[in-house]
Every structure is written in C-alpha cells, then in structure tokens.
Amino acid sequence: MVKYIVKRFIALIPVLLGVTLIIFTLLYFTPGDPAQIMLGDEAATPEAIAQIHEELGLDDPFWVRYGNYVLDLLHGNLGVSYLNKRPVAEMLIERLPKTMTLACVSAALAIVLGVTFGVIAAVKHNSIFDNLCMIFALGGVSMPHFWQGLLLMLLFGVKLGWLPISGYGTLAQLILPALTIGYGCMAIIARMTRSSMLEVINQDYINFAHAKGQKKFVIITRHALQNALIPIITTIALQFGILLGGSVITESIFAIPGIGKLMVDSIRASNYPVVQGGVLLIAFIYCVNNLLVDIIYALIDPRMKTSLSNAR
Question: What transmembrane ranges does the database entry give (predicted)?
Fold first, then answer.
C-alpha cells in the first residue's frame, strides 16, 4: 500500500506540471501589461514600466519565463500579487479555510441527502417517491450554480427573509451557498446511487438474505449498499472537483472571502500571479482527493486489495 501511494504521488508531478503550463500559456497570451497594472495609470511612465519589465523578466522569451516560474514553484514561491505586493501563497493560505469549509459543508450535504434519496428511490422503485426524487434530481443537474444561487437568494433571502444573502462567519451565512453548490452534486449522487442499488438489490445473495429472515434495513445497508459503493464513491470523488470549481462563482455571488472570490477579483484586475496560484492549488487539492479515493477503493473492494498485494 505504501509503495502504491508513493507511486501515485509521483504521478501527480506531470499532472501539476501540465496544469502550470496550460494556465501560464493562457495568461501569457492574455492582453494587458503587468507592469502597468502594478504601477497604476498615474505612475506608469515609460521608464518605470521598463524598470518593472527588467526586474520581473517580462521581456524574456516564453520558455525562459515559464522555466523561472517552475523553479520558483519548486522553492515554494508562488509569486507576488501585482496589486498589493503580498506573497500569493500567503493570500491563498489566508482564504483556504473559508473555501474548504464551504466545500466540505456542501459535500456533506450532497453525500448524506444524495445517498439517502438514492437508496430510498431504489427500494421504492417506480413509486411516487422515486419519480419525485428523479424530477428533483433533474432540476439539480439542469441548472447552473449561478442560477441556483440567484433563485435561492431571491426566495429565502429577499422574499422570505429567512437567511442572509452575503457574508461569512456564521452557520446561517453558509446555508444558501452550501445549497447552491451541493444541490447539483446531490442530484448526480442520488441518480448514481439509485442506478447502482437497482443493479444490486435483485442479485441472488440479496434474495438469499431475505430468505434467511434478515431485517430489511440490514439487507439494504450492509449487503446492498456496501456492494454498490464503488460507482457511488467514484461519483462523489468527481463531484468534489465540481464543488471546488463551483465555489469560484458561488463565493462571488454570496460575497464569501475565499479562494474563488479572490480568483474572480484577480481575473478582473489582471492580477495573474494570484490566478495562477489559485488554479494550481485547486488542481493539487483535486489530485490529492483522487488519491484518497483510490485508497478508499482498496479498503472497500477486496479485488483491489488483491491486485495491490500482487503488485508488491
């Protein structure tokens, strides 16, 4: 298992290098002069701009600038913000807890409700509850995050006045953003759980458990759900990446001072080092999440345990 984890960590290196190359290339060809952004309109004299270009190596060829950027990353240097001259790593670390709190609350909401509704819908297949769950799930899959957020703000914040529509710091301020991000993920998890459970509950060993007189709750949770978990876990892992991506828009809508809002504000201000650092951090979290999911696979699925043992 340890060798497997080490190999997977090594495999993250080319993935993250690819991410750095893509984002660096996109921002390299984006219009705008970083020197002028740093100096402002009044102080942006030709002499001052030329000095900034020389200090930051902005006149160097593309591959030279990219190589210097990667070398800085290896030393833990994500660069400096063009606007306030603060280290990018410091700005990201400052806002990371807020983004992760929102993502984890949204994930918990999506997993608990999605798996619960999916299991009940499968057990009560073709019932009214099953049809209502699938209609509800269809709405979550169809609507984008920003539209869900605006509808929730209008209904629960403006019309009913039950919940705050912006800010961060209290549980009440997390409810609407968590619902905004979690609704779509919950819908996908519910659909996958239902589909996976329907494949399992008609198997012979489930019928045998019924014949032995075991309680229905035990059969569903211990036998059926456990054997249906692999595709469900895969779906949950993919949805965590969507949660992180959805936080970029959702944090801006609800004015949550997390990494997502920081990245949107930085894109508007052409503050490229912050954008690069934010994308790289989200990509790293997503890759580590996939690694953790593979480890969970090995703990749940005996077939993967066997393959890992043979690989040794």
Answer: 9-29, 100-123, 135-158, 170-190, 229-259, 279-300
- In what helix (H) or strand (E) does residue 28 lie, and over which residues does it extend? helix 2-28
Dihedral sign from CA coordinates of 102, 105, 108, 113: negative
Tokens 């828009």 sit on residue: 249
| Amino acid making up residue 283 | A
Whole-prediction pTM? 0.78
If asked whether residues 267 and 193 sit together in one domain, one would say: yes
Burial of residue 96, with CB atoms counted within 10 A of its CB: 0-12 exposed, 13-18 middle, 19 or more buried? middle
Domain-ending residue, one of 40, 74, 108: 74
Alpha-carbon span 62 to 79, nearest angstrom:
17
Task: Specify the amino acid at residue 185.
Answer: C
Does the residue 244 lie in any domain?
yes
Note down the domain range covering 118: 90-311
Q: Which residues is 87 bridged to in the sheet?
A: 80
CATH value at residue 139: 1.10.3720.10
CB distance 234 to 293 below 8 Å: yes
- CA torsion 114-115-121-122 (nearest 10°) is 140
Residue 80: beta bridge partners? Answer: 87
Q: What tens digit of pLDDT does each residue of 219-270 get?
A: 777 777 777 777 888 788 777 777 777 777 888 888 888 888 888 888 888 7
| Cβ neighbours of 101 (radius 10 Å) | 15
Are the C-beta atoms of residues 55 and 48 closer than 8 Å to each other? no
